[in-house]
Amino acid sequence: MSFGRNPHVAKAEAEEQKALGARDAKAAELAWREAARQWDRAAARETDAKRRDEHTAKAEAARAKADAGDAEGAAEPTTPQTPSRLLN
Length: 88
What we know:
mainly alpha, elongated
């Protein structure tokens, strides 16, 4: 780690990548929430007001994506689908 760099930015970006590559909605939601938390930590550590505002906006966007995943997950049917090979 180099001096003067905010380590939470890299952690937040890694969590965003994890959320984009998640296999299920719950894992994506948790990754987006963790990304938001890391963006908040990055904003709290930032001394430059412009970058602090950018980090705060990214945290809010990550929370919105996590909440959007909740809405999509609630709309999915709860009954499991039977594989077609079992129907023959």
